[in-house]
Amino acid sequence: MPFSTDDSVDHPVSLYAATKKANELMAHTYSHLYGLPATGLRFFTVYGPWGRPDMALFKFTKAMLEGKSIDVYNYGKMKRDFTYIDDIAEAIIRLQDVIPHADTQWTVETGHASSQHCPLSRLQYRQ
């Protein structure tokens, strides 16, 4: 995997990543100060119906349907963990009955960061 759940995220390099880190820090602080049990969920590249149109899966599909080219980065060697929305919903349902402990974080992913499990790899343009 390109990233591990054990990798340090103390110095985010994007504003988006900084907001995610800030959320976890605020939850940790409330948990510590007020004894509130808190559980954090980290979702990885969620896709499915009603997905965000700015994500690669939708942008690539739209471009292919319109006969336009797409930009491929990293020489097409992209590996990423994509998680289907129904799997996210199932994880949330399963975790609602888990008694949280202070400062608990769960990573919701398939655990298969590869180009083969990537929905983008299954897109095909046909004339």
Tell me the layout of helices and strands.
Layout: H1 15-34, E1 39-43, E2 46-47, H2 56-65, E3 83-84, H3 85-95, E4 104-108
Protein model, in words:
The protein is an alpha/beta fold and 127 residues long. It has a single domain (15-122), classed as NAD(P)-binding Rossmann-like Domain (Rossmann fold, 3-Layer(aba) Sandwich), CATH 3.40.50. It has helices at residues 15-34, 56-65, 85-95; strands spanning 39-43, 46-47, 83-84, 104-108. The strands form two sheets. Strands 1-4 form a two-stranded parallel ribbon. The chain starts with 14 loop residues before the first helix and ends in a 19-residue tail after the last strand.
Keywords:
single chain; 127 residues; alpha/beta; Rossmann fold; two-stranded parallel ribbon; 11% strand
CATH superfamily: NAD(P)-binding Rossmann-like Domain
For the biggest β-sheet, the strand order reads 1-4
Name the helix and strand elements from N-terminus to C-terminus, one letter apiece.
HEEHEHE
Q: Could you estimate the helical fraction of the residues in percent?
A: 25-40%
Structural class label: alpha/beta
CATH topology: Rossmann fold
Overall CATH architecture: 3-Layer(aba) Sandwich
Give the N-terminus to C-terminus distance in angstroms.
35 Å
In total, how many domains does the architecture comprise?
1
Content of β-strand: 5-15%
* Count of distinct strands: 4
- Principal-axes geometry comes out as elongated
Poorly predicted parts: none
The CATH class, by name, is Alpha Beta
The overall pLDDT, averaged over residues, is 77
Kindly provide the radius of gyration, computed on alpha-carbon positions and rounded to a whole number of angstroms: 18 Å
Enumerate how many helices there are, as a single number: 3
Quaternary organisation of the protein chains: single chain
Largest sheet: 2 strands, parallel
Domain NAD-dependent epimerase/dehydratase: 8-95
Protein name: VI polysaccharide biosynthesis protein vipB/tviC
Enzyme class: lyase
Pfam family, one: Epimerase
